[in-house]
Amino acid sequence: MNKTILVVEDQEDNRQILRDLLASSGFLMIEAHDGEQALAMARSQRPDLILMDIQLPVVDGYEATRSIKRDPELKHIPVIAVTSYALSGDEERAREAGCDAYVAKPYSTRHLLAKIGQFFEKPL
Amino acid sequence: MGGKDALVGYVGRIPAPVRTKLLAAFLLVELLLVALGATGLLALREVEQRAGDLASLQHKIEAYRQMQHDTLRQLYSVSSALAAPDNATLPSALRQINQFGYDLDRVSFVAKDEVALLGRLREEYSRFIAIATRVLELTRTGRTSEARQVQTAELAPLADRLERLTNQLVNRAEADMVNGVDASRATYETSRVYVVAFALAGFVLTLALGYAISWSIIAPVQEIDERLNRIAAGDFSQKVVVANRDELGALADHVNLACERLQELYQRLQDASRHKSQFLANMSHELRTPLNAILGFGELMLDGVYGEVPERMRNPLERMQRNGKHLLGLINDILDLSKIEAGQLSLSVADYSVDELVRGVYGAVESLAAEKKLSISTCVPPGLPPARGDERRLAQALLNLVGNAIKFTDSGEVAIEVAARGDSLTFSVRDTGPGIAEADQAKIFEEFRQVDGSITKTKMGSGLGLAIAKRIVEMHGGRIWVDSSPGAGATFSFTAPARVE
Questions:
Q1: Complex ipTM value
Q2: B465-475 and B391-408 are packed helices; what angle lies between their axes, rounded to 10 degrees?
Q3: Cβ distance B379 to B415 under 8 Å?
Q4: A74 touches chain B (CB under 8 A)
Q5: For chain A, percent of residues with pLDDT exceeding 90
Q6: Which of B282, B300, B393, B396 to mutate to test the interface with A (most CBs of A within 10 A)?
Q7: Does the beta-carbon distance from B348 to A89 stay under 8 Å?
Q8: Which residue from A63, B81, B277, B463 could staple onto B93, CB 3.0 to 4.6 Å apart?
Q9: What is the SS3 assignment for B448?
Q10: Cα angle at B129 between B126 and B134, to 5 degrees?
Q11: DSSP character at residue B479
Q12: Which of A49, A4, A44 is nearest to A23 (CA)?
């Protein structure tokens, strides 16, 4: 059974990269364009992992992650924060919001894949 | 002290130029000196007058004494003439008597005060002469016993009285003399008090005026000086408050005005600088988003996600990737520096292992060094306790130094060393590159500076690496420096407290 990954990303080009990357690695990818959509899709689709961009319209990535982690049904889903802030303190903020890992943009696709892989080595 | 300060304040508030105040003070002191001289002269005159009085008293006493002396001799000669009357002694006695008359006349000139006494003296004298003449007449005519009788009964008491009177005159004059000396001494004492009082007053006044005027100048100058120092240190918050209504008051007003202008300018400059940094931070963020797509697609292509990459295309694709990453590095540098300048960069302090930090940096540059066939070594003292600081930022600083060393060294080696001394860690990066001339060593830590502009083009770099490293090190409370001479390689070092709290 292929793992399903929810990608929350507002930019088409970046979504395309992830689509190509994840498809080539045998993942199923579902997409959300903002934090609100992300929460709805997490509830309806129950992905195995969420790649969460932080700068999002409507509801930002921190807020969306906090909502997911507050939900007892969803809180077990790993959330990897993807941010292009790369400011010192971003990692802490992401962890405070409940993110399980943190990747700074621009990321190396290989690095990102390795990060995703870490979560599937462990038994879910 | 309070009184003095009040005086200083008062002098300061006089609405007159400083030179007028100084002139007034000097005139006042001059006046006091003139008064002192005048008092001295007056005292001298009085003393001189007293001395003159004493001299005339002296004369008087001499005259009285002469008179007393003459009286005694007279009495003696009259007595002896009567005891042994002959023609030789009688005229001599008469001469003596007449001599006394002269004395009396002389005394009349000198002693104008004792007119009554002299009058009585003269009266007694006339009677004495009359009786003495009678006695002499009786003697000459041989009526000796009668003469002796008259002498005993009338002349002797009269002589006694004359002697008492002249004694009285001498005593009185001597008493006057004593009084005169006392008065002279008293005059001297009084004059001395006046002169000393004037001198003291002059001294105190000069001191007080000197103190008041100089402090009315020095205090505001010090105040203004302190203010200017504060302004130089970037504190525009306080005003100079000076009570003076002279040139110094005007100076203080101008300093305050200049300070206000300066504060406005400084504020505007700071705002502009902050806006610039903010803009740079935003811009670098915006630049990263498309770059992410470029690098991402490139990497996917190279990884064969879109099918096998033809051999001819692999090299250009790799070049694209390399340049893209370089562009990313430049943008990151600008972002970092603008964040530091905008005050948006805070350290995230945690425990870290020095050994792991150095190994991480080594891992990041290993392939770069290998490409240039440089040997790279690390040396970390074994068994270092965990350090505390912003590991990521310290690693960035060290990475910048190592990256530069590799970039500028064409052959030889790059060595990374850590030394622990007390509470401080020293990270050093030694290379066998071209070295840096003394004159350039300070410049290289400034933003956007490189020793030789042309190197930037061949070596590719933002020129911000050292500036960023310096800021990071300084944020940790350490310092960064370089030891080098042209041709002998360079050693860049920085210190960081082992445990930053």
A1: 0.83
A2: 150
A3: yes
A4: no
A5: 48
A6: B300
A7: yes
A8: B81
A9: coil
A10: 130
A11: -
A12: A4
